[in-house]
From TrEMBL:
Residues 3-275 form the Phosphofructokinase domain. Belongs to the phosphofructokinase type A (PFKA) family. ATP-dependent PFK group I subfamily. Prokaryotic clade 'B1' sub-subfamily. Homotetramer. The lineage of its organism: Bacteria, Bacillati, Bacillota, Clostridia, Lachnospirales. This is ATP-dependent 6-phosphofructokinase. Pathway: Carbohydrate degradation; glycolysis; D-glyceraldehyde 3-phosphate and glycerone phosphate from D-glucose: step 3/4. Transmembrane segments: none annotated.
Amino acid sequence: MKKIGVLTSGGDAPGMNAAIRAVVKTAIANGIQPIGFIKGYNGILEKNYHVMDRESVSGIIHSGGTILKTARCMEFYEASYREKAFHNAKEIGLDGLVVIGGDGSYRGAGYLSELGLPCIGVPGTIDNDIASTEYTIGYDTAMNTVVECVDKLNDTCQSHERCSVVEVMGRHAGHIALNTGIATGAVQIITEEIPTPIDDVVENVKKIRESGKDHFIVIVSEGYGNPVEIATQIQEKTGIDSRATILGHVQRGGNPTLKDRVNATRMGYYAVKLLEEGKTNRVVALQQGNLVDYDIQEALKMKKPLDMDLYNMMMEISF
Ligand code: ATP
């Protein structure tokens, strides 16, 4: 193995830089030339890449975002463009590719593997919505950002005896909502997996108020519904002054936490080792703290339900 590529694809996530650094350094340490493609699969299609060395990944382990930039690449949904990408990769002399991204990026990597370019996927998304792994790069940092913001909202909620309805990211998955709900002492989380009707939310808030609590945090996962509408309904039906806050893209930035840096480094390292062992069409995953790998198509069929034990615990002590 002489030359491998690395790219980041889909949405960005804090810790992607740590993963890129690990791929580049592991490659160099093993006598392999690393190439960094710019803006996801676009970089292969346009032959837009940097030859990477130690210097190109110096001083990036602590920074959010991705030095390789990331993007969606619509052409990749078409077989003819994927074939073009495969030919470009061969012309560049690639022996393998590490793709850091989500499930969609894995699909692209699966197709390239089928064409004959060994590919390994590394889970990079703040949403933790990749079923094959219990952890994705960026998830921990994003949740810590949410907690920091909600703590601030909680301060002002306490002072004014208000209810804050906070929309957090997670796409169709409620993992961020559930864990940050627990960590901030929320009275309710609402997600697509647990689509609590607004009247039940209102009843819960009323019941908790009767127990003496005078300020409330409700965490809503994006995709469930409009947080402004939920806040309006709570205010109208309980009389509690209620405000909606959409945290938005602030959750995708910031310096990665220790956990994200360490796991991103482990995963990047592991991905290069898989390529060195001649593996292809695999994704790296964390299961019970250990790194494992799965066939891409097998990984894409997996399901990761929301942890209902955690949810039930949260609701039992939410008063
Ligand atoms: P995130 O979780 O941040 O959204 P993702 O990797 O799931 O990350 P997508 O937008 O689904 O994000 O996919 C990223 C890119 O991967 C797409 O723009 C496209 O280039 C490629 N891709 C996604 N799905 C496919 C597919 N079915 N076939 C080929 N390529 C795909």
